[in-house]
Write a structure and sequence with these properties.
mainly alpha
Length: about 240
Amino acid sequence: MALIVSLATIVSTFLGGLFAIRFKDRLHLILGFSAGAVIGVAFFDLLPESIDLATQTYDIKLVTVFITIGFVIFMFLDRFFSIHIHEKEEGCENKSHRGRLGAAALSIHSFLDGFGIGLAFKVSSAIGWIVAAAVLAHDFSDGINTVNMILKNKGGRSQAFRWLIIDALAPALGVISTLFFTIPEATLGLILAIFTGLFFYIGASDLIPESYHHHPTIWTTLMTIFGIGLLFIIIHFAV
């Protein structure tokens, strides 16, 4: 059953990415929505889940430390691979590194989504379906976010499509991995806390500023708010 759900996550992620590629000309609006979706996932999905899992063994203060570590790690890698200089001086290669780094982080998150589905089904079918519903709800946004990470950082459609395939396959690989080993729930909670910090950085420090670039802020702001609100509604009703 978990494998069937993993196939559904592939389809959902893939459709989201194709949507982003098709409407590239409206990328600033999609970026605004993606920023809200990434922040929404961090606030309403990753953060509560990491606290629930990790605090079974660890103090909540440790969870906040791992969230900070995730934020700082991505900030360091972002600055290392792509130093922020004026656009006229910024090389395409640095931008490309940044796009691949963001897409890789999103793909690893998708892998953990699948990992969570597999573990949930090992507990019970009911819990498995609840987790699967939450994952499917935001996989469409994951596909959009992965494609946007590449396109906005000077990557071409072919590169975006390749990363979309990786991100779409990641949840299925996560589910399959649970057939061979398990990980303590508290440890998984700390891993999710790291990705909470990563997503806070991606959304607030990368996607939001980029969506405002050379475009009126009112529409991109509304799209960001819409992305946050939509993810809240989806995750709320999914779980």
